[in-house]
């Protein structure tokens, strides 16, 4: 036994070390989790083949998975800072990709307006997620609509900027609903630029097959708890192939962005996976 080991054992008997070391590990994990809890603004430039030149520079804020009623977001005041932050970013368009409420939330919260105050020149649009269906699609859709958010359920809207238009498509949640992409795309002329909102990111191959250029999703929380060198400890169904960030669907030019979400579920903590507000700037072109 070295001199250093002798000193350690004299100062800290074995029974003390058995208590101290796990406590230090827990304290470290708590500190890392606390640091992982601050909302991060991810600024991403997305080159998109086929994007009309007039739409180059289109700025979109993407948010997802608020899970209102669980964890840090339990009152409208707790969401106010996030709303202010998004307003400060001055986007052209805001999109929300589902899970407004957490399935464990008080059902009375379905009648509240956590996203009120969000505004953008081209509008604020949303789709619903699997947790939202626990409260009834109609209730969540009404909460969003009363907040000034237009809900897209298997339909599309024509959005115009700078004299050129594109289409925003929204689908029902693939896990708990009946997404109908053909119905949603029926009004869209061939060759028009298309952006899809759908809660589950692993829907992306279907989007690519339909000729959609860009998909926004959430659902996975990026794993919520990640370990360096290992990644996510868990990913939900339809959230494993495209768990976070910007990816390209193999064999296509379709890109998908998966937002890590704002809230949490099951466990009210994150680790190496901070909550996210995404500021995306669309660019004409095909670069990486």
Automatic annotation (TrEMBL):
<dbReference type="InterPro" id="IPR029052">
    <property type="entry name" value="Metallo-depent_PP-like"/>
</dbReference>
<protein>
    <recommendedName>
        <fullName>Calcineurin-like phosphoesterase domain-containing protein</fullName>
    </recommendedName>
</protein>
<dbReference type="GO" id="GO:0008758">
    <property type="term" value="F:UDP-2,3-diacylglucosamine hydrolase activity"/>
</dbReference>
<dbReference type="GO" id="GO:0016020">
    <property type="term" value="C:membrane"/>
</dbReference>
<dbReference type="InterPro" id="IPR051158">
    <property type="entry name" value="Metallophosphoesterase_sf"/>
</dbReference>
<feature type="domain" description="Calcineurin-like phosphoesterase">
    <location>
        <begin position="60"/>
        <end position="222"/>
    </location>
</feature>
<dbReference type="GO" id="GO:0046872">
    <property type="term" value="F:metal ion binding"/>
</dbReference>
<keyword id="KW-0378">Hydrolase</keyword>
<keyword id="KW-0479">Metal-binding</keyword>
<dbReference type="Pfam" id="PF00149">
    <property type="entry name" value="Metallophos"/>
</dbReference>
<dbReference type="GO" id="GO:0009245">
    <property type="term" value="P:lipid A biosynthetic process"/>
</dbReference>
<dbReference type="InterPro" id="IPR004843">
    <property type="entry name" value="Calcineurin-like_PHP"/>
</dbReference>
């Amino acid at each position: 036994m070295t001199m250093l080991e002798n000193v350690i054992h004299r100062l800290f008997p074995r029974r003390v070390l058995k208590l101290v070391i796990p406590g230090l590990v827990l304290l470290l994990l708590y500190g890392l989790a606390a640091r992982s809890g601050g909302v991060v603004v991810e600024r991403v430039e997305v080159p998109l083949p086929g994007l009309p030149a007039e739409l180059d520079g289109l700025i979109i804020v993407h948010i997802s998975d608020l899970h209102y009623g669980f964890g840090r977001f339990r009152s409208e005041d707790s969401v106010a800072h996030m709303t202010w932050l998004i307003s400060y970013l001055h986007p052209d368009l805001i999109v929300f990709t589902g899970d407004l409420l957490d399935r464990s939330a008080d059902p009375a919260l379905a009648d509240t307006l956590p996203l009120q105050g969000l505004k953008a020149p081209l509008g604020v649009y949303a789709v619903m997620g699997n947790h939202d269906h626990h409260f009834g699609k109609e209730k969540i859709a009404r909460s969003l609509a009363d907040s000034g958010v237009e809900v897209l359920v298997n339909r599309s809207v024509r959005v115009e900027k700078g004299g050129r238009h594109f289409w925003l498509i929204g689908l029902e949640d693939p896990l708990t609903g009946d997404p109908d992409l053909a119905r949603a795309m029926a009004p869209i002329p061939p060759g028009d630029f298309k952006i899809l909102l759908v809660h589950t990111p692993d829907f992306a191959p279907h989007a690519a097959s339909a000729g959609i250029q860009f998909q926004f999703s959430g659902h996975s929380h990026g794993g919520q708890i990640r370990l360096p060198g290992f990644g996510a400890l868990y990913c939900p169904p339809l959230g494993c192939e495209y768990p976070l960030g910007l990816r390209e669907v193999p064999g296509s030019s379709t890109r998908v962005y998966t937002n890590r979400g704002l809230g949490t579920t099951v466990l009210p903590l994150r680790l190496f996976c901070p909550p996210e507000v995404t500021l995306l700037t669309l660019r004409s072109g095909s670069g990486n």
